[in-house]
Structure formats: C-alpha cells, structure tokens
Specification:
Helices cover 69% and strands 3% of the residues of chain B. By secondary structure, chain B is mostly helical. In chain B, helix 2 packs across helix 13 and helix 12 runs antiparallel to helix 13. The longest helix of chain C has 32 residues. The chains are: A alpha/beta (421), B mainly alpha (289), C mainly alpha (279).
Chain lengths: 421, 289, 279
C-alpha cells in the first residue's frame, strides 16, 4: 500500500512539475492585448526588447488573442486567472468603467500627468472617471471609414462620393462592371454591425440612439429611425452591393477580396493600413484610400459623426510590479514609439501624429477627426454585449434578405427587453 | 475474489477523486448556480427560478433545438447510414482493407484541422468546391450560409465519422457465421436483400448503439460549429452547445448559462433512456453478433 | 473473405465503382490541402484547383515559425502525457479494485463511475470553470489535464475492469498463498497480462486528449499555454487571408498524425472504436 501511495505521489509531482515548468520565471510582466497588425506589433516587440535590456531578470509576456475572442472571452478569462495581465488593452468607455467598478483598473493620474503634453486632449475620454485616470490612450480608433481601391475607382472614372446618392450611383457603376461594391467579412458580426451602427446614430440622432442602445426604459430597438437605417442596409443587400457571403466570410479573409479585383470598398476602421501585412503588402503600395461615410438621406442626427473611440492600456489595480509597469509604459508611449505608430497609421492621438506629414493617410485621418461633429461609440464596445449581439443579428439578417428591417429589430428587442428594466 | 477488506477502497480513490472533483462535483455546482441571481461572477441572491422560466421564452434556444434535431437527422444518414452501407459494400469487395483504412483516417485528425480545411473548401474565393462546380458553369454557392448551413456542417461530420461507424459495423458483421450468409445465397436472395434483411437485422444491437452515439453526440457537438461558422451572425447554425458557450463565456451570464447546461444534461440523459427502452424492445429477441 | 467471393461479378463491379467514388471524396480534400500548401496565395485565389508548379516547402516553414508551433507541440505533449499517465494509472488501479477485490460500497461506486459514460462535457463545464476560477487554475495546464482525464476515466475503468473480469481467479491464488500483498499482485501479475487493454486505453486517451478543442478553448486564454489545437485556431483565424499559409499550417499538424496512423493502424482502430463496441 505504501508503494501505491508512493507511485501516486510521484505521478502527481511529475505532472505538477510538467505543468509548472513551463511557467516558472523570475519576474514576469504580463500584457494582455487583442491582436495587433504586424507593423505595430514590431514596434511593441522593440519596446519589449529595450525594456528587458534595461531591466535584467524581468521578462515581458505579451498575450494576444484574436480580436473578438479577446473582447468577449479572452480578457475576462485572463483577468480571472491566477496569472492576470499587469497591463491590458481596452476600448475606452463602458468597458473601462466596468473595470473601475470591479476594482481592476488602477488610477494612474500621476503617470498620466507625464503624458498630458504628448497626447491630444480629446484622447482621454473614456479613460477618465470621477477625477481619476484609468488608462493611457494609445490611439483613437475610427471604427468605420470607407476604404476603397483607388486604382479601380480611377479606372472606372469614379471619385470619392460626397452624398449617399453619389455612393449609390458609384455602387451601381461597380456592379455593372461585375465588381462587388462593398466587401464585408462579417462572420464575427461586428463589421456590418459597426457600419450600420454609424447609420443608426445618423438616422436617429446621437442622443436617442444612445438611449435606445443604452437600454433605457421606454425605448426600443424597433424605433422607426433604426428601421429607416436598416432599410438602407436592406437596399444594399437586395441590389447586390455587398458580397453574398458576407455573413460567412471571416474578417481577415475579406482582405483578399480587396486585392483580387473582385471588390471595391470595405467599411473598416483606421487600423486598415496596419493590417496589410496579412496579405503581404505595405499600405502605400496598395493605392488604397478612404472617404468618410457620406450623409444619409432623411437622417435626423449629426451627418458628420464618426464612429470610433479611444483605445489604450489599463494598468491592473492588483499588479505587484507597478513601478516596472510604469517603466514599460514610458517606453511604450515614448515620443519615438508614438512617432513610429503614427507612421504606421496605428496612432493619431499623439501631437506628433498631427505633424506626421510624410503619411498622407494619417494626416487625412487626423483632419477627418477634426472635422467630425461628434464621435460616437460602436454598439459592441460602448454598450451591453447582449444588446449588441441581438442588434448585429438583426443587421446581418437584413443584409442577407431573410428578414424585413421592422421584424428583425422587433425580434432583437424581444431578446433584450428584460434588460431594460 | 479476495476477502472483504475495506482498506481496498484505496485502490479506487485516485480515480474517484479526479472523476468526482472534476466531473460530478461541478455538475452539482452548475445546478446550484442555476438557482442564483448573478452579477457577472458575483452571486447576489439564492432561490430564483427566473433562469428556468427564461428557457421557455428564449427565441435563440428554440432555434438551437431545431438546428440540433436537424443536425442529428442529417448525421444519422451521413454518418450512421453511410457507415452501414460502406460496411456492407466493403464486405462485398475482394480487397477492402485499403479502402477501409482511408475512410477511417479523418477521425484521427483534430477537429481544428478538419474544420479549417473544410472552411477553406467551402470558401467563395479560393474554395475547392465552388471551383469544381464552376467547371460545369455553376455560380458560386455560399455553402456555410442559410439555407445550407446545417447540411454543410453535417457533410463535414459525415466525412469525418462515416468511416468510424463503417469500422464498427464491419467488425460486428464479420462475426456473423458464414452458414447464415450461405443459406441466404442458396435461397436466391440478391445482395441488396441479403444485406438489409439478414446482415443488418443481425447487428441490430450495434445499430442501436450507433444511434445513441450519433444522437447524444449531436447534442455535444461544438468544435465543428465553432470552427466552420465562427460567430455565425445569423445564428443559422446555432446549436445548444454553442448557445450555451456564448451565453456563459461571452455574456458571462452564469445563472442562465447554468440553466442551459442543466437542460442539456437532462436532454441527453432523457434521449439515452428513451433509446435504451425502445432499443431493448427492438433488439430483444433475435440472436446478435 | 468468402462473402465477397460469392458475390456476382456485376455486384462486385458496381461496389468497386461506388467505393472508388467515395475514396475520391476522402482523398481529394487531403491531397488538396498538401498541394495547395505548395502554391502561393495568389495562385490559389486565381485557380483553386490548380496543381503546384514546383516542390516548395516555404509555406510549411513559415507556418511553423509564425505560429510558434514548436512551443505548442511541447504544450500538447505535456498535456497529453500527463493526462494519459493519470488515466492509465488511476483507471487500472480502480479497475483492479472493482474487479478483483472486495470492499464496502464496491458495486455502487462502480455504478457511479459508469454514470460518467453518458454525461456530456457541457454538463459540468460551467461549474468547472467557476471552480477553477476560484482556485486559480484557469489558464494553467491543469485546467486541461484534469478535465480531459476525468472524461476518459469512466470508459477506461469499464474496459480494464471487463478485461480483468475475464481473467480466471486462479491467477492470483498461488500468489496469495505465498503471502503477496494485493498491490504486488496488481503490479507484478495482473498488470503484465493486461497489456493489450492498457494499450487500447492509452491509445484512445492519447488521441482524444491530443485532439481536444473545446476544453482548452474555454480554459486557456494565455497565448504561451495554448495547446496546438487552440493555438492553430487563433493562428488560422488571424492569417485566414493567406490561404496557402493556413493550409500549410494544417498540413504540418496533420502529417505526424498520418504517419502514426500508418504505423499503428490496427492499434488505433481498436483504441478509437473500443468505446462503441464494448460500451
């Protein structure tokens, strides 16, 4: 019997050694992040190398999950684990607020002061609550712009549309040439969700849209203005203006369509240029460019609004290595790193970005932001996730042509009505 | 059998600990959780039935059940019946070993390889299937979207598991005495009749087991749905397990997620009971091989 | 052998034809995976059915390096070895106890084990996640090793116990007279005879744990601790714009499985189908 116990002990010790051998290090700074375009990731890797050289015995571990997995399951699970990240990526706004309420986000007002002169003043929104600063914004993500293939446009004599009608007629021309006007990789639901999300604000007005999506009592997703926005989506679906497989096509898969001549436009965020590595290209050589979504017919809201939000990094309130994390942030947000991010289009919040004249696309983003009447939050990062999922299903169904806008939104409202109480 | 000695229970303790702590104990946990109100990971109040009443009004749950039954119906044909017929044909070949080895092979691959490969095969650009039907001039088809979603996923399931069930049927048919086969030939029965009226009835018990595996397996299927369909914005291929995982891990709705989990457990156990009872009645009388 | 010999030639021809078609359905996707891996992304997009124009392993090497597969291979090996050790060790002990020894509660405990054969993973996943979260096991290899072991245990105990049951009791009688302890009998007499069934249990445990997707998908979000399956999920999602690279990554994972299958075909077939035939 003793030998039996002995064997069991050996077995479990061996297993434990196996399991922990891979984790045993000296001091580890963990960083949780959504996946980042290769160009920007290279900058972070240089930051890590520099930090590790300056701090012998300390290693930095960068955990990145696929974007949507990070947002939904990845980060909550990382935070819940025994080895939570010391510093993590977050979308400013509702999500950061939740971290503040949960006691996970550290007030870094002291560190923030160092960066006030470097970062533009609008960048802090979504990271400041009740006089505290709970994160450092790295970028202002413009979530929806219309990226387009400039070569294709000029070959067909098209120019950037200034009105919805012009956009429609451009799309008509494109379909006539056998080109799919808009490609969306909506298998993860948020691409079309963000695109139409912007249209919801423009149709209903920011305040009402926020009340509807913010689950305030007395409002409904099946609001006539929301229905009107989805009718525009329905028209695009019926006219063949979007790719027929949009709801099964993955987000990275959709990039290939912008390069095989089959599609002309893609509604996507300011990170589009930094994703070119996925198809093995540098952005400047693509001949791609963007325009902002033109004003909607009959819209009651601000027609110059931009969908987007500040994104940045939050320090875990429970970190044991606050000083090291601060040091790493100083490298990560150094003027040099920021300038490099700007050049890649991955940063437009630092003052250096505004001066980055050598990158026309970044300059254009900065000026678009300056000209925008308002910055409104995407449904999935600014609001309750269940609401966003229900809304996104309605949007997907309307594009697909399997539901009428009214009934799709009513079905979505039915799913979340209990959350309005 | 040695004398009764209660110290011998120590032999089963290690297995019991792993199995009990990791499998049985959390089931109790799950049931317990389903009766609580939650704010993310914080329990608020005990003694609510709201999660169970919500089961009755959840429109996504209805869709999940429907899809699950559809998937089971398709896979009974594409996995079970296909396996049965393949086994029958293999028995009528001179050298079937190579064929059988190839048909069995997919099951050793991880679901991520099978799912991703088929996602690529079904793709609209760069997809093998659309390229093949393009040869005869057909327009590209969105295989993983409605109305084909469930069928396309089931085909991948069939591709993976038909060979597995073929192997099981083949092994049990091989135990049928040659004399029975011979007498049917003497009776002048054709191969079709011999197969369905003699061989299949003689392996009825295996048929029932295969039905159990496919039916309960249908309620456990997660991998292929997640890998092939990703988040599936239309919910055109949502099934109970994906609905459960999304409710629990994405919405972090522990209460309702637990209730779904309890429901899933009861469905699987109920199906087993039904098939067992009916199956016993069917297979009871005849000699089995 | 004789069934087929007696089938009329017409029947045999038809059967051959159908089986050949089915064979194509099985071989083509796999062949396509390998052949496309040796082409460039642009070639695949232009013509998915084309054949590679050269033997080129660039994509395989890129996939291996970009997905950091070496690391994830090791993680998968660690998880699989640990689970298999736990399952074979504890299941053979338990089966010995249930089959050859006698103690209070033996029958009911055994029935309790068999319950595990019918329970789906999802019935305990939610509770287990919360449990692991509260004891800090999330995002550790234990969070995969323990559940995969627990899932394999009931069938392992059943199979090994049935095998032990079939052994005559005379086997241990002489040893008992010599005064050998039950444990000596277990490891020096019973276990050596049980090699075939241990091999079967080892086979199905290794394959199931190696291929497990859902449990690490739920339990491990740390990049460096992901096993091959979920790391490949993240990689293939991320790089899905590069069809050639993604297919090459799949081929790299599938190849060792095919090699092992070709070498150990009989053993693997027996292992994987054991549950259905004995259960």
């Amino acid at each position: 019997m003793k030998r039996l116990l002995l064997i069991l002990v050996i077995l479990s010790v061996a297993g434990a050694a196996f399991a922990t051998a891979t984790q045993e290090e000296e001091i580890v700074i963990r960083i949780g992040s959504a996946t980042i375009g290769p160009a920007n990731m290279a900058i972070f890797e240089d930051n890590i190398a520099q930090f590790e050289a300056e701090n012998p015995g300390v290693t930095v571990q960068w955990d990145s999950s696929a974007g949507d997995d990070y947002q939904f399951a990845g980060l909550p699970s990382l935070l819940a684990s025994d080895t939570p990240p010391d510093l993590f990526f977050e979308w400013g706004g509702n999500r950061v607020r939740n971290h503040v309420l949960d006691g996970v986000a550290m007030d870094i007002s002291d560190l923030a002061e160092e960066f006030r002169p470097v970062l533009s003043s609008s960048a802090w929104a979504g990271f400041e609550y009740d006089g505290g600063v709970y994160g450092l914004p790295l970028n202002q993500d413009l979530t929806i712009q219309m990226w387009y293939d400039g070569n294709l446009f000029s070959a067909l004599g098209l120019s950037e549309p200034d009105s919805w009608d012009e956009l429609l007629s451009a799309m008509n021309t494109l379909t006539g040439e056998g080109v799919t006007p808009i490609v969306m990789g909506n298998a993860d639901a948020w691409v079309a969700g963000n695109f139409v999300g912007l249209m919801l604000y423009r149709m209903a007005g920011n305040e009402k849209a926020q009340a509807i999506m913010g689950l305030e009592p007395g409002y409904s997703l099946a609001d006539p203005d929301f229905v009107a926005a989805l009718e525009l989506a329905q028209l695009m679906g019926e006219s063949g203006f979007v790719n027929a497989d949009m709801n099964t096509l993955g987000y990275p898969e959709s990039f290939a369509r912008m390069f095989d001549g089959s599609s002309a436009m893609m509604p996507l965020g300011s990170w589009y240029p930094s994703e070119m590595g996925l198809v093995g290209m540098e952005f400047p050589e693509t001949g791609h460019d963007f325009f902002m979504v033109p004003p909607l017919p009959g819209g009651k809201g601000d027609q110059t609004s931009i969908l987007g939000l500040n994104v940045g990094y939050v320090v875990n309130a429970n970190t044991e290595h606050k000083d090291l994390v601060y040091d790493f942030i100083r490298i990560m947000f150094s003027a040099e790193s920021m300038a490099r991010h700007s050049a890649e289009g991955g940063n437009i919040v630092s003052n250096s970005a505004a001066n980055a004249t050598d990158s026309p696309v970044v300059a254009k983003m900065v000026s678009s932001l300056e000209n925008a009447g308002s910055l409104v939050a995407p449904p999935d990062t600014g609001y309750n996730l269940e609401m966003a999922a229900a809304l996104y299903q309605a949007i997907a169904e309307v594009f697909e042509g399997i539901s009428e806008p009214q009934e799709a939104l009513e079905a979505a409202e039915a799913k979340i009505a209990r959350l309005r109480e | 059998m040695t004398r009764r000695n209660n110290r011998h229970i120590l032999y089963v303790v290690p297995a019991l600990l792993i199995y009990g702590l990791v499998m049985i104990f959390p089931i109790g946990f799950t049931f317990f959780f389903s009766l609580w109100e939650w704010e993310r990971f914080t329990p608020l109040a005990f003694g609510t039935l709201e999660h169970f009443t919500r089961l009755g009004t959840d429109p996504v749950l209805g869709r999940s059940f429907l899809n699950n039954f559809l998937y089971i119906a398709y896979t009974i044909v594409l996995e079970g019946f296909a396996g049965l017929v393949l086994a029958g044909m293999a028995r009528r070949m001179q050298r079937s070993l190579g064929f059988r080895a190839v048909f069995f092979a997919p099951i050793i691959l991880p679901s991520i390889v099978i799912g991703t490969l088929w996602r690529q095969i079904y793709a609209t650009t760069g997809g093998l299937l659309n390229a093949v039907i393009g040869i005869v001039g057909a327009e590209p088809v969105v295989w993983l979207g409605p109305p084909l979603t469930m069928l396309s996923v089931s085909v991948v399931s069939g591709w993976t598991f038909a060979g597995y069930f073929m192997t099981i049927f083949y092994a049990s048919m091989a135990r049928i005495p040659q004399s029975i086969m011979d007498s049917s030939v003497i009776d002048g029965a054709g191969p079709w009749r011999t197969f369905f009226q003699i061989e299949v009835p003689l392996v009825k018990n295996i048929v029932v087991i295969v039905l159990v595996i496919i039916t309960t397996g249908g309620f456990k299927a997660f991998d292929l749905f997640q890998i092939l369909l990703r988040r599936d914005p239309l919910n055109s291929g949502i099934v109970l397990p994906t609905h459960l995982i999304r409710t629990f891990f994405e919405n972090q709705d522990i209460g309702y997620g637990s209730a779904l989990s309890v429901l899933l457990t009861m469905v699987v156990v109920a199906i087993l009971l039904v098939i067992n009872t009916v199956g016993k009645r069917v297979t009871g009388e005849i000699d089995e091989y | 052998m004789s069934t087929e010999a007696r089938s009329p030639i017409v029947v045999r021809t038809i059967v051959w034809a159908i089986m050949a078609v089915v064979l194509v359905i099985y071989v083509v996707p796999i062949f396509w995976m390998y052949s496309s891996s040796m082409r460039t992304n642009g070639e695949i997009i232009l013509n998915p059915i084309g054949l590679p124009t050269r033997i080129d392993f660039t994509n395989f090497i890129d996939a291996w390096q970009m997905a950091n597969m070496g690391r994830h291979f090791i993680i998968s090996i660690v998880i699989t070895l640990s689970s298999t050790l736990l399952v074979v060790g504890s299941a053979s002990l338990a089966a010995y106890g249930f089959s050859r020894l006698n103690f209070a509660g033996r029958k009911s405990l055994y029935a309790f084990f068999l319950l595990g054969l019918i329970l789906p993973v999802q019935s305990f996943l939610v509770g287990l996640f919360v449990l692991f979260r509260s004891v800090g096991l999330l995002n550790s290899l234990w969070a995969v090793i323990l559940p995969t072991s627990a899932i394999a245990l009931p069938l392992a105990v059943l199979l090994i116990k049935n095998y032990f049951d079939s052994l005559p009791s005379s086997i241990e009688e002489s040893a008992e007279i010599d005064g050998a302890s039950t444990f000596t009998i277990y490891h020096s007499i019973i276990l050596p005879i049980a090699t075939p069934i241990i091999a079967t249990v080892t086979t199905f445990t290794i394959i199931n744990v190696w291929n497990e997707f859902m449990i690490p998908f739920v339990m491990i979000q740390t990049t460096e601790l992901r096993p091959l399956t979920t790391s490949l999920y993240v990689f293939s999602t991320r790089h899905s714009a590069n069809y050639a690279l993604r297919l090459a990554a799949l081929a790299v994972i599938a190849s060792p499985m095919f090699v092992v299958y070709i070498l150990l075909q009989r053993q693997i077939q027996r292992g994987i189908t054991a549950g259905a035939i004995k259960g």
